[in-house]
Design goal:
Elements (H helix, E strand, L loop, with lengths): L20 H10 L5 E6 L2 E7 H9 L3 H5 L13 E4 L4 H9 L4 H5 L1 E5 L2 E6 L1 H68 L3 H32 L7 E4 H13 L6 E8 L6 E4 L1 H17 L3 E13 L2 E10 L6 H4 L13 H5 L5 H11 L3 E6 L5 E11 L21 E5 L3 H14 L2 E5 L2 H8 L6 E5 L1 E2 L2 E2 H10 L9 E5 L4 H10 L3 E4 L4 H13 L10 E3 L1
Parallel strand pairs: 3-4, 7-9, 13-14, 13-15, 15-18, 18-19, 19-20
Antiparallel strand pairs: 1-2, 4-5, 6-8, 8-12, 9-10, 10-12, 11-12, 16-17
Length: 541
């Protein structure tokens, strides 16, 4: 609690305005601790006579003869610092700091409803200020310590969360290979409409689980500030065409018109993180299409330029059921839906809009929600972008020169039996010979003796991992020193991609394994010309 002036005041009896200077001096001499005498008339404070001032005057040559008989009020400080009860010492200290230093030399007169109550000495003020500063310093030290402890706990939680999510990604996406991979194999091998329908249902359910896991990982990386931004040029017309091709097929069976328009006045080539911009737009489109049974969903892409800055504006409007004002306030929170029954009626996890908002903020933009005049909702995203230069020949999508493909033997290093089965069956069905091992040591031993056309190595295995395999083979003269080695992983984050590139992997294959994508990816790697090479990147297999 702050110290107030009345807390440190002393009860010094006031003197009248007619008391002589010599009498006042006598009071000072009788009490060495007395530093000032308040001068009061009819209850009102006129000023104060300080020991220092009176002593100085009477001690001067001839001062006693001249001044002793005069009224002490003649020598008083007429504008002393006066403070009402309740005034804090901190406030008095601020006055002194602002230039009114008399409180630190003459003290403070304390009033109660304008009437004299007591005096506060300069020493008491300094002591109180020092005490408060000491208390404040200790409080700040304690707060700093608590902050450090909280920061350490938060870092521990963040590390634990990251570790848990990495574990979750691996432990869920690995068995998902058994669901999605086997479902795909069944669709390619079984006959009969009903078995195929069942296999397709399994595949769709697995895809939904995979998307949910991907959303959770994206949300976690956003919250942890670990979602990288990779700016690059892209064309708005191509961007719109991609969205149209992807989503047009998903509205089959609905009485719904999908409209995607690029304003003609827009700058067509801009620079931003195209993948994140695409993710924002697709999440908004998914939300609009989910809640719109008839009418239309309209997407408009445009660029705006103001004050020398270029912005991309994406507007997604629908004629759906709309969103109430109460629901708008919580719509962008993670795991929130506009209505409690939404998940049962329309599905979804409630993560799409939250991720869209987080990605928009990551790119330095903003997202707004409004009502559609014709019913439904309008989402508007505005993101700062750069003007990209014209497309050059080197900017064109690069396709490696291809050579003929002769199917040889593939080595699979995978400790998860179902994942190994899916990869093995998919490659055998395509015509490759396949060998499998369950740990890094066996993979290194086999690859040291037998030449393979390519090696698929899981990142996580007992007795080492995929990086152990690739580093060992790349650094040892043997039949597979330059063979294509593909990393198989459930984690395709930027850190993992960088680690795989540094280790010497040729490409990455993401779990859950999809047989057709696996075959296509491996074929692309093997058919790429050595002079052109293969750019490391994650391929959904």
């Amino acid at each position: 609690m702050p110290v107030r002036v009345e807390d440190i005041a002393i009860g010094v009896a006031p003197i009248g305005a007619d008391m002589s200077a010599s009498a006042a001096l006598g009071l000072f001499l009788s009490d060495p601790s007395l530093f000032a005498l308040p001068v009061v008339m009819n209850g009102a404070v006129l000023g104060q006579v300080t020991r220092a001032r009176l002593t100085e005057i009477l001690a001067s040559p001839g001062g006693r003869d001249v001044a002793a008989s005069r009224a002490a009020s003649h020598f008083m400080t007429q504008k002393p610092v006066m403070a009402e009860s309740g005034t804090t010492v901190a406030f008095i200290a601020k006055l002194a700091a602002d230039g009114n230093t008399s409180a630190l030399t003459d003290g403070v007169i304390v009033l109660n409803d304008g009437r004299y109550k007591g005096l506060v000495s300069p020493g008491a003020i300094l002591a109180a200020v020092a005490q408060e500063n000491a208390l404040r310093a200790r409080a700040m030290q304690a707060a700093s310590k608590r902050l450090q402890q909280a920061t350490a706990r938060a870092l521990d939680v963040a590390r634990d969360k990251s570790s848990f999510l990495a574990f979750l990604s691996h432990e869920i996406r690995t068995p998902l290979t058994g669901i999605l991979g086997v479902a795909d194999l069944l669709q390619d091998t079984i006959s009969g409409a009903e078995p195929r329908r069942l296999a397709r249902t399994i595949s769709e359910s697995g895809n939904h689980l995979d998307r949910l896991l991907g959303d959770l990982l994206d949300l976690s990386r956003l919250e942890a500030g670990k979602l990288p931004v990779s700016p690059g040029p892209f064309d708005l017309h191509e961007f719109a065409a991609e969205a149209r091709d992807l989503w047009q097929s998903r509205i089959a069976g609905k009485r719904l018109d999908l409209r995607i328009h690029v304003e003609s006045t827009s700058v067509m080539r801009v620079e931003s993180d195209a993948m994140r911009v695409r993710q924002i737009l697709f999440n908004l489109m998914s939300n609009a299409l989910k809640f719109t049974e008839q009418g239309h969903v309209s997407v408009t892409l445009a660029t705006l330029e103001a004050a020398g800055h270029l912005k991309l504006r994406m507007t997604v409007s629908d004629t759906g059921c709309g969103i109430s004002d109460a629901d708008k306030a919580r719509l962008f929170r993670a795991f929130e839906q506009a209505r409690a029954s939404t998940a049962q009626t329309h599905g979804g996890s409630g993560l799409g809009l939250s991720i869209a908002k987080g990605l928009t903020a990551l790119l330095g933009g903003e997202i707004r929600l409004a009502d559609n005049a014709g019913g439904g909702s309008v989402f508007t995203v505005t993101i700062p972008v750069l003007r990209a230069g014209p497309r050059l020949a080197v900017d064109a999508p690069h396709k490696p020169r291809m050579r003929s493909l002769t199917l040889g033997t593939i080595l699979i290093a995978e400790d998860h039996a179902i994942s190994a089965l899916v990869m093995s069956q998919a490659l055998k069905a395509a015509g490759w010979q396949v060998e499998t091992v369950q740990n890094a040591a066996d993979a290194i031993a086999r690859a040291g003796e037998v030449p393979y056309q390519a090696i698929l190595a899981d990142i996580h295995m007992p007795g080492g991992n995929g990086e152990t395999i690739v580093r060992t083979l790349r650094s040892t003269t043997g039949p597979n020193q330059i063979a294509p080695i593909l990393a198989v992983t459930a984690d395709i984050g930027a850190e993992r991609r960088t680690a795989c590139e540094r280790a010497g992997f040729t490409a990455m294959i993401e779990k859950p394994i999809r047989p057709r994508a696996l075959v296509a990816t491996l074929a692309d790697v093997l058919m790429a010309d050595e002079d052109t090479g293969w750019e490391l990147g994650a391929k959904r297999a």
